[in-house]
């Protein structure tokens, strides 16, 4: 590995020294350890075959790529060995039973942002852990006891929370271990960076279109400051960036057919993000209420999602709540 002038030995406690014991901590640790094979396969690109090859269609109607399906099967086996009772995955229509006597359920998106496979853009995975219960995954986010993500970019980063703050770790290639790089990540209430797909703006609610116009007006407009804009096309990449550097993200509902109730998945995308962001002092909303209060109507239910710095999210929600003219 190239050594930079200010480099020294790797620092930070090993994740194995922190995530000890049974229950959610053991599950989160198992998921973290399982990321190395995914990272290595991504790094290999097309050397062994095409990870973007279409091999099926999931319940969302999204085309499944080889990496989507491979990551799904890999993680299901990891969770089986970890004693998880059942798994809900974006890449499977039905809930997958694993260990009938298990005490915990896991919801996951094995590869978030799979449209970016093979082009070097960030992607990763999202998951949440819930106590086993008869209602399965049809529970609000208030039932989540742990959540996390992996982000694959120029580094492999892993973030998690057991309800004691949000923490971020990174892959130490020399030790072949994961080390903590930031404990208790905290989001400042204000930010100057926002992320959204501007090509959909014309379909948004009028109040939200006014917010976007005021944002672009910068310091000369009602918001009184200049903003930078980012769009990584992977919610997990935006989550990682926002936890480290602040900001806000929105993927709202809009007028297009199929987008009226949002497009991100509630149980295994929005709920983990909401848990992590709130543990870091931020907010996560569907535009009308906190994500943690949303009751899923189905395991693959969709939702709008706005998350990030508290004051920025509150400002967006204020514009959304404006009455429609006429």
TrEMBL record:
Catalytic activity: beta-D-fructose 1,6-bisphosphate + H2O = beta-D-fructose 6-phosphate + phosphate
Enzyme class: hydrolase
Assigned keywords, A-Z: Carbohydrate metabolism, Cytoplasm, Hydrolase, Magnesium, Metal-binding
Annotated residues for binding of Mg(2+) 2: 109, 112, 269
Segments forming domain Fructose-1-6-bisphosphatase class 1 C-terminal: 189-318
Subcellular compartments: Cytoplasm
Cofactor dependence: Mg(2+)
Functional pathway: Carbohydrate biosynthesis; Calvin cycle
Residue ranges of every copy of the Fructose-1-6-bisphosphatase class I N-terminal domain listed in the record: 57-174
E.C. code: 3.1.3.11
Cofactor binding remark: Binds 2 magnesium ions per subunit.
Keyword Hydrolase in annotation: yes
Signal sequence region: none
This protein's GO CC annotations: cytosol
BP GO terms, sorted: fructose 1,6-bisphosphate metabolic process; fructose 6-phosphate metabolic process; fructose metabolic process; gluconeogenesis; sucrose biosynthetic process
Residues the record lists as binding substrate: 197, 263
GO terms assigned for molecular function: fructose 1,6-bisphosphate 1-phosphatase activity; magnesium ion binding
PROSITE patterns for the chain: FBPASE
Keyword Electron transport: no
Residues the record lists as binding Mg(2+) 1: 90, 109, 111
Family named by the database record: Belongs to the FBPase class 1 family.
Quaternary structure, from the entry: Homotetramer.
Name of the protein this chain belongs to: Fructose-1,6-bisphosphatase class 1
Provenance organism: Paracoccus subflavus
């Amino acid at each position: 590995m190239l050594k930079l002038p200010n480099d020294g030995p790797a620092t930070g406690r090993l994740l194995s020294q922190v995530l000890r014991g049974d229950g959610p901590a053991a599950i989160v640790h198992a998921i973290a350890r399982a990321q190395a094979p995914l990272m290595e396969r991504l790094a290999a690109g097309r050397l062994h075959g095409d990870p973007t090859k279409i091999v099926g269609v999931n319940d969302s109607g999204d085309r499944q790529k080889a990496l989507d399906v491979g990551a799904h099967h890999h993680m299901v086996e990891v969770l089986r060995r970890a004693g998880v009772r059942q798994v809900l995955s974006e890449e499977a229509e039905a809930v997958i039973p694993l260990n009938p006597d298990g005490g915990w359920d896991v919801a996951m998106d094995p590869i978030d942002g799979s449209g970016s496979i093979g082009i070097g853009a960030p992607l990763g995975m999202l998951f949440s852990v819930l106590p086993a219960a008869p209602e399965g995954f049809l529970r609000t986010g208030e039932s989540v006891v742990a959540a996390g993500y992996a982000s694959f970019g120029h580094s492999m980063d892993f973030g998690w929370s057991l309800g004691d703050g949000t923490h971020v770790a990174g892959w130490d290639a020399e030790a072949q271990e994961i080390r903590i790089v930031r404990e208790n990540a905290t989001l400042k209430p204000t930010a100057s960076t926002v992320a959204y797909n501007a090509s959909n703006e014309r379909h948004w609610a009028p109040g939200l279109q006014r917010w976007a116009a005021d944002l672009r007006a910068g310091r000369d407009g009602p918001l009184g400051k200049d903003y930078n804009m980012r769009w990584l096309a992977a919610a997990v990449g935006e989550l990682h960036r926002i936890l480290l550097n602040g900001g806000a993200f929105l993927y709202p509902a809009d007028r297009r057919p199929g987008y009226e109730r949002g497009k991100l998945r509630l149980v295994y995308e929005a709920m983990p993000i909401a848990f992590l962001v709130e543990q870091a002092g931020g907010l996560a909303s569907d535009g009308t209420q906190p994500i943690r209060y949303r009751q899923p109507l189905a395991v693959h239910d969709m939702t709008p999602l706005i998350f990030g710095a508290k004051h920025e999210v509150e400002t967006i929600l204020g514009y959304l709540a404006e009455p429609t003219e006429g």
